[in-house]
Design a protein that fits this description.
This protein is mainly alpha-helical. Helices cover 74% and strands 0% of the residues. The two termini are 19 Å apart.
């Protein structure tokens, strides 16, 4: 089975992009963003990586488990528990950190004690305003996709190449019809994080793995050109939306980039040589890719912690100090995620697997 090494670069870039997106949590960066009226750029920089992570998740799952529909229910539940054990400790950590911030009113007035069980049970995507960390809804939605993965895989296989793509495209268009009603914070947040809304990106990853990867062969320099052109096109659209606010309102779903990002995911998944493939194989990129999920999940609550510290010491107006603090936090997070990946994660996974409620005999 071919390993998807080309995706390392995309994970690393996405990790950095989503961190940049949320830096306006820090006061001086927020003032800079508002002064130059570039909030749309920060919004899109954060929305694109989320779509990428969903697409990659579906692609990797389908690529590694193409015969999942032939397994029994017990096997799927056992496999789901194993995947849950990989990231649930992070969700627990974020909830513990988020509780004092919620009590201090640093997150949202709507976050209360009811939010604790919501976060512990990973139900944030169904109750989005109870979220302790803006990105933890991703885990909630991902759990939905993992739990129903055999059904989703069977759906793509049953519909076939043409009709499954048409089905995904229709799901993609639905938010555009609802976008005029997204002026409500609740409706906007609900649609953005709701599993049935985001699952089409996971399905898109499954589609790429089933119908496109086996036939994805082209010359390395052609792929490099296509990847570079796709990145450039996405960047141009982001800038265009910033310069023309009416265009941003028309496509206010944040997911208009999904077809372009899916194309980039496909290109990097099939590449086996060339500039971008060589970059994906670089040890720094491979390392960043390996910690991209814990970094992605922890970065926002970390920035909120930094914001609280800066406000506490009355340093929110010192732009240089804020920037230095953000850079230090970035590298500290990388170090913590490395330690989590190499030491902490295995301990918690072992504990969770020890209490796996599903019979191990279901595993084959």
């Amino acid at each position: 089975m071919n390993k998807l090494h080309g995706l390392n670069l995309l994970r690393a870039i996405s990790m950095i992009m989503v961190f940049i997106c949320h830096t306006p949590i820090v006061p001086s960066i927020k003032n800079f963003r508002d002064y130059y009226k570039i909030s749309g750029v920060f919004t899109d920089i954060g929305a694109i990586p989320v779509s990428i992570f969903f697409i990659i998740s579906g692609l990797v799952m389908a690529h590694n488990h193409k015969n999942a529909t032939k397994r029994g229910l017990l096997f799927h539940l056992y496999s789901f528990w194993i995947r849950l054990a990989k990231f649930y400790p992070l969700a627990l950590l974020i909830t513990i950190i988020g509780i004092p911030f919620a009590l201090l009113g640093s997150l949202s007035d709507r976050v209360n004690w009811f939010s604790v069980p919501i976060n512990l049970l990973l139900l944030q995507s169904y109750f989005p305003l109870s979220n302790f960390s803006g990105v933890c809804w991703f885990l909630s939605t991902l759990c939905f996709a993992y739990l129903f993965f055999p059904l989703l895989l069977n759906l793509i296989n049953t519909l076939g190449k043409t009709y499954s793509l048409l089905f995904i495209f229709i799901m993609y268009l639905i938010p555009f019809f609802f976008s005029p009603f997204f002026y409500s914070d609740f409706l906007y947040t609900f649609f953005y994080s709701f599993p049935l809304y985001r699952v089409y990106e996971f399905l898109l990853g499954i589609y790429i793995a089933i119908y496109l990867l086996p036939y994805g062969k082209t010359k390395s320099h052609n792929i490099d050109i296509l990847i570079f052109t796709s990145f450039l096109l996405i960047f141009c659209i982001v800038i265009l939306k910033t310069q023309f606010p009416f265009l941003y309102m028309i496509v206010a779903t944040k997911t208009m980039f999904t077809p372009f990002t899916a194309f980039v995911v496909y290109l990097l998944a099939i590449t086996r040589k060339g500039l971008f493939y060589n970059l994906s194989q670089h040890k720094i990129i491979v390392f960043l890719s390996s910690i991209s999920l814990p970094f992605f999940l922890l970065h926002q609550i970390s920035l909120r912690t930094l914001r609280f510290v800066l406000l506490f010491f009355n340093l929110q107006e010192h732009c240089l100090i804020n920037i230095i603090a953000i850079i230090v936090l970035f590298f500290f997070l990388i170090l913590f995620c490395y330690l989590y990946k190499t030491h902490i994660s295995a301990f918690f996974q072992e504990k969770m697997l020890a209490i796996n409620p599903f019979n191990r005999k279901g595993k084959s």
